[in-house]
Amino acid sequence: MTKAGTGTAVAVEAPAVAVRLPRRRGIELALIVVAVLLPVYGYCAVGLARHGTLPPGAAGYGAGLGVLALLAHVAVRLRAPYADPLLLPIGVLLNGLGLVLIYRLDLETPGDRAAPAQLIWSALGAALFTGIVFFLRDHRFLQRYAYVCVAVALALLTLPIFFPAVNGARIWIRVAGFSIQPGEFAKVLLAVFFAAYLSANRSALAYTGRRIWRLQLPTGRVLGPIVAIWLASVGVLVLERDLGTSLLFFGLFVVMLYVATGRSGWIAVGLLLAVLGAVAVARLEPHVHGRIEDWLHPFATADAGQGPGQLAQSLFAFAEGGILGTGLGLGHSVLIGFAAKSDFVLATAGEELGLAGLSAVFLLYGLLVERGYRAGLALRDPFGRLLAVGLASIVALQVFVIAGGVTGLIPLTGMAMPFLAQGGSSVVTNWAIVALLIRVSHAARRQYDGRVAP
Amino acid sequence: MTRHIRHAAVFCALLLAALLVNAARIQVFQAPAYDDHPANRRPAIARYGQPRGDILVGGRPVTGSKDTAGRLRYERTYTDGPLYAPVTGFASQVYGSSLLEDTEDGILSGTDPMLAPFPLVGDLTRARSRGGDVVTTLNAAAQRAAYAGLGARKGAVAALEPSTGRILALVSTPSYDPESLSGNSATVARSWAQLNEDPSKPMLNRATGQTYPPGSTFKVVTAAAALDAGVVRDVDEPTDSPAPYTLPGTRTRLTNESEGCEDAPLRVAFEWSCNTVFAKLGVDVGVADMAATAEAFGFNATDLRVPYAVAPSTFDTTVDRAQLALSAIGQYNTRATPLQMAMVAAAVANGGQVREPYLVERTTTAHGSTVAAAGPRPARQAMRPSTAVRLRELMRNVVEDGTGTNAAIPGVTVGGKTGTAQHGIGNSGTPYAWFVSWAQGGRALEPKVAVAVVVEDAAADRGDITGGGVAAPIARAVMEAVLGTAR
């Protein structure tokens, strides 16, 4: 650990003093009430806009979301009383907003309803959250199972190869009528593995090996396994054509390596590899090549008279929203087509809630990430720090990749907007991420409580 | 490690900032360009997202809207589509709109700012006003009579109220059902192709969009010019005109269909439609005065709107004397829409004043309160009132014992003028049968209706084509319909 930091970093080095930290569970409860009421209000707004009446299920829906949130809150109160009070309400609000948007889009596609399934998955996610908060007493427990995690992660990533491709990507498995995207779960497991391995081999990674120009290369013995596992996971994803997730894994790998070793050279190497990889894939892969063409010329198909593509429709939706939006239920983002509820769900938020609503959503994600980083900064054990950074970075990178894609900032790669998008695996995974962040932040804040030995 | 975690956090913050900046770029700065992109269907969705206002004839809507529950939700329907097609036009989701559907689109679709009680609030909430209604001046009975009168023949009818310019009937046959162009199904494309390929041009609005040589009906204009210019002072004095008449500067001899035209006085010449007399009168009046009178009636005006544009009727002002002689009997380059010839008849009926014709009485909001009403239209003196009095007499004679007896209505004062217009190369085409007239009910203070009828009857035997035989009965039916409802 360096001493260069100030503020919190100084506190890290400071001896424990006999102060009693506020636990702030009351604040969390108040925020959860707000986070439940806002989506219920949105649900009512959709009903009023579309049918002129309150939707019949509004009370039940609000009660369901409220019960889930309260269960999670009770688990936090009992088992992680020092946890950051913002994490859970942000998760509840984003998940509730996602349910409203999907319910709203379901109205346009009466034959294909996604909201009920999403609600079931959200319940499963909340249950998993409760389970993790309740039974995982200390995050350091995970460190012991790093290799189990990576083995399961690789197995999960490999599994979809044996199932047929859906929409050009081989990333789903179908079990009992439910589509599961195992790669989603693998992200968390891989973050756990990276955190464990990197924290164990930090010094060796940073200070051994040959030096080339200004870059200190670690020895193959230390770096080898992690690069191999990373290559395997990215390789599998390229085979499955899930480029969004491989980009995410790559970014996660570089960020965690940089944070663990403190070598800025890794960023240079990472960027170089990313550019090389992107160029190679864009040249060789027609699927990716098309995506880049779409990004550079989103209106090419429209101008050629073949109708606007998904990205063009998405841009139209954002533009229609303007600053204040059309209002929930009053937009036409369903024109985007089959991915409107999943990859492009943000376009509905942009059209119906406007720049104001969209910025609020982005800031919620920003706050979630920031709270993750804050927990990482406050912790003392390297594993916990790296885990918190890794989990927060997953959220940040994922939001950037998909939101940047649907707003034309970067080429589009299929990925789920955390909590917002249709997709059970994604919702469950994100609840797991929030649960782990709760555990980590509980550990981080508890160590300053004078009554508890660190 | 702390420092590097902070670096990573800054990196994440930069990603977030990039997203926010980019979202602002699209939603604020690029938004107008994207909103107006032709491939963006939102304007069309909003436009068809609510029922369209209606076009009313005699207080009843002749249009409707049908909820298809599709993305472009409401489709246009028409009651008696073919009957009112020359007035309503069509409103298609694929092919746009025409005629009143087009010119009154702002009211009908609800975009007209006059429909919103508080325009600024509407801009803020982006709320759309409900479509308003367009109340036409049409007389349903007259419209039906004209349509039934034309039947299977090709032709057109235009009827006006002389004292106001209100259009009472506007019919064109063969017609089409504008409903077949509503919506965006495959059948719409088929109908569109079929209607456009049809050699009888059912979508052509013959009443306002097509000009014909007016033939002898133009003699009303020539007579007005001659009387106004003082070339004829007494309608019963011989006109010193030979029969046949050799066109000035040529050897071409102009003849008549009727006997007794040599030196005939204006009354007789008008009654029996003597070409020779009117050709010579035109030449005697001169091109300047002829053109001035024709233009006072509305010829050569390119800006007539009812409110949709009407094809300009023409009287050539750069002619030699021989061409002037032919122009004066409604041939050569003289061309007129049926509406224009109805205006000529209306001017005679209205003491020499031409009232600009109009089709929209008023527009209303969906709740029926008036948005805009047809104000007084400018009147133009086409001839002296005394000339108009004499012309009324001449036109009455035509119906009482001339070529137009088929238009006579018992107990009603009717004035008319027949016409049989030659056209085609070397006059080879089947002639057009014309009839223009006006009618004044027994106890009415002024004429209530002026009508122009043209029949381009391609199927009939050429010898039978005379305005009196084919067109006059249709005009009579229309006049009876108007007087029957007005009496």
TrEMBL record, chain A:
It is a multi-pass membrane protein. It is found in: Membrane. The chain crosses the membrane at residues 29-48, 54-74, 86-105, 117-136, 145-165, 185-207, 219-237, 266-284, 353-373, 385-410, 416-438. One of its GO terms (biological process) is cell division. One of its GO terms (molecular function) is lipid-linked peptidoglycan transporter activity. InterPro entries: FtsW/RodA. This is Cell division protein FtsW. Keywords: Cell cycle, Cell division, Cell shape, Membrane, Transmembrane, Transmembrane helix. PANTHER family: CELL CYCLE PROTEIN, PEPTIDOGLYCAN GLYCOSYLTRANSFERASE RODA. One of its GO terms (cellular component) is cell division site.
UniProtKB/TrEMBL annotation, chain B:
Keywords: Signal. This is Penicillin-binding protein. Residues 155-480 form the Penicillin-binding protein transpeptidase domain. Residues 52-134 form the Penicillin binding protein A dimerisation domain. GO terms for cellular component: plasma membrane. The keyword Lipid biosynthesis does not apply. It comes from the Bacteria. One of its GO terms (molecular function) is peptidoglycan L,D-transpeptidase activity. Residues 1-23 form the signal peptide. It holds the Pfam family PBP_dimer_2.
